[in-house]
């Protein structure tokens, strides 16, 4: 046997083939561990992280004051919670993730379109959040050592980062690695701890800032605005779109964690409450703190880690060091929560679906972490790079996808999916469409994306002028693109819905509890195995041939 063959055999996952492995099939009963609190923590940490703290600045830059900005946050969060709940229900019902669902939408072969878009976004956002996590690590280390706080940079000026930043980044990645070894169904504990820590940190920093400013929260909340009624309307529209864009990846990722639910109701309630309750607080903390500190320092502090470093630079005493340490610890833990769950594992699921024989969630997570280096996130923060602006506008691509998912699942398929056929790579699958590609979804996606591209180009390079119509479309893209893709997808499928099919009659993957099998009219997993002894033991992943055998028997 050749070395290459031995190496391939060594890294091939157990019970895997070209379509699936244990992480891609529907979640079995013993891994469905997320209840209502877990989804509350999931959206809690998504809404309470450091990036969201600074998001209020983008709303104020539109010419709005704090009160109007918070009004936008409330409305946008309501929209986001509805979109996330709708987009997560397919996974809550059938217990498959985002990557497998792409096979339903784009076809067995065409699924790589949606998977690659989100995989790229996950890698970039992981790298960006990891760099920010490294800055938070530096807060902790600076509170321990004044020498570290004043560490003189030894890197060449041509390198757009300092020695201290590089050290913090490396330490953050080292701290991340153990969390990547934890199965996703157990990460709700990390999210709970992170949510509580960052919540109380936010209260503490905000209370300190207002007290430090003489119990005055400054002028940002009630600042006079000079926008015309038309400009005000488009500022609101762009504000809603901007806030929605900042959380579109969370909406798209929802299916990856809804599949771990104990009950559908608990999942849906957790999504809605988590988004609307916690999503309101941190932008408010950020605006109040920035407003209060502006009166004292003459500059706006939008990042909590910068505030902590200012404490240490102004007065390196025991109180400042203790406050910086505990706030830095809360920030690091929150960055681990939001980055591991929201970016790394989601990206890993995408990579696993592209190469299921060799990549599972654990291996894919490590690969996403390693890709943080070639992504060079230090350029996002320490140079004039517009890449982060472009990535922040990636909702131009994700919004049409979300519209197609919702239209396809609720309107076209009436919530009926034949999950077993997601793992058949031949024309026997109803999701084979045209040689494995669903051109209707691709057309719906392209038609929805195209009108938003001029605005995306302008965001990347403002010197390129675009028409006012194209600009306004981009400002309201989360509504306009959604409507276009939804309507086009519905129209294309109106007379071409022969691939809808009926749900499976058997629980092939030990996914459902006995009561759920009864509710959904499914033959239980144990019955399936006993009916066909050739299939084997009760804990296994079926092959394509076995799936079709069970279907023919039942």
Number of strands: 0
Average pLDDT over all residues: 87
Strand content: under 5%
Uncertain stretches: 530-539
Q: In the CATH classification, which architecture of the largest domain applies?
A: Orthogonal Bundle
End-to-end CA span: 41 Å
Radius of gyration: 25 Å
What gross morphology would you assign? globular
- What class would the helix/strand composition place it in? mainly alpha
- The number of domains is 2
Largest sheet: none
**H-E order:** HHHHHHHHHHHHHHHHHHHHHHHHHHH
**Helical percent range?**
55-70%
Might you state the CATH topology name of the largest domain?
Hydantoin permease
Q: For this structure, what is the CATH homologous superfamily of the largest domain?
A: Hydantoin permease
The tally of helices reads 27
Using the coordinates above, name the CATH class of the largest domain. Answer: Mainly Alpha
Keywords: Membrane, Transmembrane, Transmembrane helix
Protein name: DEBR0S1_34200g1_1
Membrane topology: Multi-pass membrane protein
Family: Belongs to the purine-cytosine permease (2.A.39) family.
Secondary structure: elements and pairs:
Layout: H1 3-11, H2 36-48, H3 50-53, H4 56-60, H5 66-94, H6 98-106, H7 112-144, H8 146-149, H9 163-180, H10 188-212, H11 229-246, H12 248-258, H13 264-297, H14 304-314, H15 318-354, H16 361-370, H17 372-375, H18 378-382, H19 387-392, H20 395-412, H21 439-449, H22 453-460, H23 468-475, H24 477-493, H25 514-520, H26 525-531, H27 544-553
Helix pairs in contact: 2-10, 2-13, 2-15, 5-11, 5-12, 5-13, 5-20, 6-7, 7-9, 7-14, 7-15, 9-15, 9-16, 10-13, 10-15, 12-15, 12-20, 14-15, 15-16, 20-21, 20-24, 21-24, 22-23
Transmembrane segments: 40-62, 68-91, 112-141, 161-182, 189-212, 232-252, 273-294, 386-411, 437-457, 477-496
Pfam families: Transp_cyt_pur
Subcellular location: Membrane
């Amino acid at each position: 046997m050749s070395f290459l063959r031995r190496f391939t055999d060594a890294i091939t996952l157990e019970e895997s083939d070209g379509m699936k492995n244990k992480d891609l099939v529907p979640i079995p009963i013993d891994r469905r561990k997320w209840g209502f609190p877990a989804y509350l923590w999931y959206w809690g940490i998504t809404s309470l992280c450091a990036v969201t703290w600074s998001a209020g600045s983008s709303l104020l830059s539109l010419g709005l004051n704090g009160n109007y900005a918070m009004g936008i946050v409330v409305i946008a969060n309501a929209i986001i919670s509805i979109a996330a709940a709708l987009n997560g229900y397919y996974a809550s019902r059938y217990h498959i993730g985002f990557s497998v669902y792409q096979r339903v939408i784009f076809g067995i072969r065409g699924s790589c379109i949606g998977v690659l878009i989100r995989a790229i976004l996950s890698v970039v956002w992981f790298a960006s959040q990891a760099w920010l996590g490294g800055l938070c690590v530096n807060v902790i280390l600076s509170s321990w050592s004044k020498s570290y706080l004043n560490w003189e940079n030894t890197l060449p000026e041509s390198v757009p980062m300092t020695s201290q930043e590089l050290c913090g980044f490396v330490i953050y990645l080292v701290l991340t690695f153990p969390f990547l070894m934890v199965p996703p169904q157990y990460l709700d504990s990390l999210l709970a701890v992170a949510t509580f820590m960052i919540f109380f940190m936010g209260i503490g920093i905000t209370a300190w800032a207002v007290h430090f400013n003489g119990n005055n929260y400054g002028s940002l909340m009630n600042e006079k605005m000079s926008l015309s009624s038309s400009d005000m309307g488009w500022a609101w529209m762009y504000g809603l779109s901007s806030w929605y864009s900042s959380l579109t990846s969370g909406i798209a990722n929802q299916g990856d964690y809804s599949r771990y639910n104990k009950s559908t109701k608990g999942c849906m309630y957790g999504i809605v409450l988590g988004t609307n309750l916690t999503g309101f607080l941190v932008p408010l903390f950020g605006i109040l703190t920035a407003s209060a500190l502006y009166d004292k320092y003459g500059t706006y502090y939008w990042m909590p880690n910068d505030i902590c470093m200012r404490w240490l630079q102004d007065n390196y005493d025991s109180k400042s060091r203790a406050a910086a340490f505990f706030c830095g610890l809360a920030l690091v833990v929150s960055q681990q929560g939001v980055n591991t769950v929201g970016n790394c594992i989601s990206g890993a699921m995408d990579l696993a679906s592209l190469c299921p024989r060799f990549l599972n969630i654990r291996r894919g997570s490590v690969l996403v972490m390693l890709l943080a280096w070639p992504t060079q996130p230090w350029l996002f923060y320490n140079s004039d790079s517009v890449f982060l602006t472009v990535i922040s506008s990636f909702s131009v691509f994700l919004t049409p996808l979300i519209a197609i998912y919702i239209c396809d699942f609720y309107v076209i398929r009436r919530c009926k999916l034949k999950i077993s056929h997601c793992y058949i790579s031949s024309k026997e699958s109803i999701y084979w469409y045209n040689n494995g590609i669903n051109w209707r979804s691709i057309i719906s996606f392209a038609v929805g994306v195209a009108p938003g591209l001029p605005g995306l180009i302008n965001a990347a390079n403002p010197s390129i002028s675009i028409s006012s119509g194209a600009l306004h479309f981009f400002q309201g893209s989360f509504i306009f693109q959604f409507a276009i893709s939804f309507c086009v997808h519905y129209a294309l499928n109106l007379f071409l819905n022969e691939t809808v099919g009926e749900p499976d009659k058997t629980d092939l993957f030990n996914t459902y509890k006995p009561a759920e099998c009864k509710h959904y009219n499914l033959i239980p997993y144990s019955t399936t195995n006993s009916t066909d002894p050739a299939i084997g033991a009760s804990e296994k992943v079926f092959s394509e041939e076995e799936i079709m055998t069970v279907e023919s028997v039942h």
